[in-house]
Design goal:
Keywords: Signal. By secondary structure, the protein is an alpha+beta fold. The chain has 8 helices and 7 strands, in the order H-H-E-E-H-H-E-E-H-H-E-E-H-H-E. The strands form 3 sheets. It has a 3-stranded mixed beta sheet with strand order 5-6-7. A two-stranded antiparallel ribbon has the order 1-2.
Length: 261
């Protein structure tokens, strides 16, 4: 029994460290730049307005307060997005579509299983979280959360700040934005999210003796090469890191981003 537990722990630790690569799902790599269609994200915005609050450096969700009606409304919002064909949207509309969809599905998964201590408790016995589970069908294609993040968002946009947009319902994650993404506010929200995360201790903790970065910068370091690497990216928002010459450490808190209010 002890040997089985050790083997399972080894399996899960390896799984955590082996972050998914950015690998394009070509089917989704098309858009309609002549489209004037604007996707409504009001359903998601109403949920955020009612249940998301800022506490210290965290943006937390009051999962315990969500009413049955609002749970149903959230599911309806997700299903509304599922009826659309995102390939017929402009690139700007697509980005907001995928980010909001990812975040709304993640919250919905937590609500379906609440109370839990961490999203990593979801999924099958040999799973570390729900990211490889089919969670939605769009245009006849079954998608996982990993598909949305690592096969659509990351490879199509090649935007390092996407890591500040998608939220994994954990305290260590960049905060769930209190404003729904839209085609017109995306850059503003990404820039704001990057600044807030990098200037928080969970993003970049600087002391006289050490610097501890979010494990995001370790898992996805290749995504920041277009900006000269992780440190160059961080310097844009927190120049103080220039003064540190020592070893970098990494940390991540998988505790649920839940509010007690």
């Amino acid at each position: 029994m002890t040997r089985m537990v050790l083997l399972l722990a080894l399996f899960l630790s390896t799984h955590v460290l082996a972050a998914p690569k950015s690998e394009l799902w070509e089917y989704w790599n098309t858009s309609n730049e002549s489209s004037l269609q604007s996707v409504s994200h009001q359903g998601w915005q109403r949920f955020l307005d009612n249940y998301v609050t800022a506490q210290g450096e965290h943006t937390l969700v009051s999962y315990h307060r969500v009413s049955p009606q609002d749970k149903n409304n959230l599911k309806q919002y997700v299903q509304q997005l599922a009826t659309l064909d995102p390939k017929q949207l402009s690139r700007a509309e697509q980005y907001a579509y995928w980010v909001n969809l990812y975040n709304a599905i993640t919250v919905d998964l937590i609500l379906d299983n609440y109370p839990i201590k961490s999203i990593t408790k979801l999924g099958g016995f040999f799973s570390f979280g729900p990211w490889q589970d089919d969670v939605i069908t769009i245009s006849g294609k079954a998608l996982t959360l990993n598909d949305i993040e690592h096969r659509i968002l990351r490879p199509i946009w090649n935007e390092p700040r996407t890591h500040y947009a998608v939220n994994c319902a954990s305290l260590g994650c960049p905060n769930l934005q209190a404003t729904a993404f839209t085609a017109s506010n995306t850059d503003k929200l990404l820039e704001q999210a990057a600044h807030v995360f990098i200037n928080s201790n969970k993003g970049v903790e600087i002391t006289p003796e050490s610097v501890t970065l979010s494990s995001i910068y370790d898992w996805f370091r290749d995504d920041f090469q277009s900006e000269g690497g992780v440190i160059e990216h961080i310097r844009r928002y927190r120049p103080q890191i220039n003064d540190y010459q020592g070893t970098l450490h990494y940390d991540y808190d998988w505790s649920l981003n839940q509010s007690s209010d």
